[in-house]
Amino acid sequence: MGAGIIEIVEVGPRDGLQNEDMLVATDQKVELIGRLVASGLTRIEAVSFVHPRLVPQMADAEAVMAALPDADGVSYIGLALNERGVQRALDAGVDEVNFVVVATDTFSMRNQGCTTAESMEVWERLTFRGYGEGARFTVTVGAAFGCPFEGEVPVDRVVEIATRVAAAGAAEITLADTIGVASPGDVTRRFGAVRDAVGPTPLRCHFHNTRNTGLANAYAATMAGVRSFDASIGGLGGCPFAPDATGNIPTEDLAYMLQRMGRAAELSLAALIRTAQWLETSIGKRLPGMLMRAGPFPAVAERA
User: Fold this and answer.
1) Cα–Cα distance between 233 and 271 in angstroms, integer?
2) Is 205 a catalytic residue?
3) What pTM value is reported for the model?
4) How far apart are CA 235 and CA 247, in angstroms?
5) Taking a C-beta distance cutoff of 8 angstroms, is the pair 149, 132 a contact?
6) pLDDT score of 89 more than 70
7) pLDDT (average), residues 186-203
8) Catalytic entry in 114, 147, 205, 239
9) What is the 3 state secondary structure string of 265-284?
10) Confidence at residue 128, expressed as pLDDT on a 0 to 100 scale
11) Please, is 154 exposed, middle or buried when counting C-beta atoms within 10 Å of its C-beta (0-12, 13-18, 19+)?
């Protein structure tokens, strides 16, 4: 990835689908991921390894991973909340394990049945003993901008968590606005503080568009030096444990903005739009993405 070029990490197959009531068939998930790969995306959060009772949509995680084709340069990510989930992810052959530490105890208890401190202890135990050698281990700090149960989350709390997970070997740290409460000013302050604390550890953003600030926050993050962003095709998504949390920023909308800025990795907007439209038809639900309706500008033929 060249200097100044910004990477999009596709989370639609996991964070996008996990909140859907209608169970999506394994072959449809595999087709979705194949379409995303064909559009040029190279990091895809394909599955999560949570208990099927909690998130039934992800019950077929192993089957999805087994059906995915090998693709040169493509990294498949599996999300995990605990040690059992990490083991399942590694056994399934993921390229990256994305471990979650939630910034508040109330949300952490609802999300993964333990406090924030206990979650960090699990992370440290895994990494300090070389668990999962060969896979890339990253950490998402959930509710890093605000909690649906405890309200405001102090910047110092986020810095403390990021510092500790970085010290235990996180290859990358994602700050997640799980419920979509951040403003561009929040983004600038938090990423600046975390970057000062963790030094060279790469940072990533995960923004939800609950209050229509997602793209503005993404722009602020680019100005703060962030070079990697989560996004979900069509803007699909939410969080089963966060009341009223709507979808992530749409992949195609973010790609359009970054391309107009001259900052995007090589992606096909036409392929992303077709995939968003296909997904909308497949799940029988209108998606919030806007580029899929308005189209790119200028309206010229683009590579498939």
Assistant:
1) 11
2) no
3) 0.95
4) 5
5) no
6) yes
7) 98
8) 239
9) CCCCHHHHHHHHHHHHHHHC
10) 77
11) exposed
